[in-house]
Design brief:
Blueprint lengths: L1 E5 L5 H10 L3 E5 L3 H9 L3 E2 L3 H7 L5 E4 L5 H13 L5 E4 L5 H13 L3 E8 L4 H4 L2 E5 L2 H6 L1 H7 L18 H4 L1 E5 L3 H28 L7 H8 L8 H12 L15 H11 L5 H13 L5 H14 L8
Parallel strand pairs: 1-2, 1-4, 2-3, 4-5, 5-6, 7-8
Antiparallel strand pairs: 6-7
Helix pairs in contact: 1-8, 5-10, 10-13, 10-14, 10-15, 11-12, 12-15
Amino acid sequence: MQLGMVGLGRMGANILRRVMQAGHAGIAFDCDTAAVTALADEGAQGAASLAELVRRLEAPRTVWVMLPAGEATEATLRELHSLLSRGDVIIEGGNSFWKDSARRGAEAAQRGLHYLDIGTSGGVWGLKRGYCLMIGGEAEVVKRLDPILAALVPGEGTALPTEGRETRDPRPISGYVHCGPNGAGHYAKMVHNGIEYGMMQAMAEGLDLMRAAPFELDLPDITEAWRRGSVVSSWLLDLTAQALAFDPDLAEYSGHVSDSGEGRWTVDTAVEQAVPVPVLAAALFARFRSRQEASFADKALSAMRKGFGGHLEPKKA
């Protein structure tokens, strides 16, 4: 199959690479010509414009948009609407607000186009580890694109089987799930990221408490031990242990913790639906507080964000 990728940043380029490694053809476009050239050197077809990308794809076309949420994505979708033909598919894999995705799906349908909103988790490690995909859109379109989606996910890996799943959809076992209609994929990803905030905050506060212990606790060794057999073992813990192994004091971090929007959307949605989320809200507010007075816990949060997503702290003025 062919996949056109618009946006060759930290995740877009690696998504296309992983698809190409599975034997599919990739067509790449980005405003940064150097990024296009890099993918072309690896076997993709480079495109100098959206129009050229569409021309290089055979109908029915599939174009994946991986751009920052907001106007950059909106403008690209408007242009694609004028270039694509009935039956073509647009995938939007960035961290867009779920209500925008529901609207965009309806707008695409009015033009005879198909639209999938795919919440994509995996960060800068996705090329090697695979991506977790949360998909919103038409079931038949998801089924048609299964060869591409299956190429992106991790597969069963070393996770223990979940008892009772024998008669259920087999795709979640590999790392992708059809969540429902347009908007559902990005809704699930929004909540996923809200939970991520809470997990990171709990881990960071625990590290801060251990730093204040009346003993000389070795945090690199303790977190390394927790990675094996502990109920708090996780990829976030793996990244934390790695950061502490290199720098037990996390001296390279200021502790200024940014938020990329999904945490705010999660809390706003919870208020809208009258669902109590005190842990998720507190984790978001803790990030706001970090920008006024940072602690060791905030440095740990910064280390985790750099580890999974390549997020760097803002430069000091």
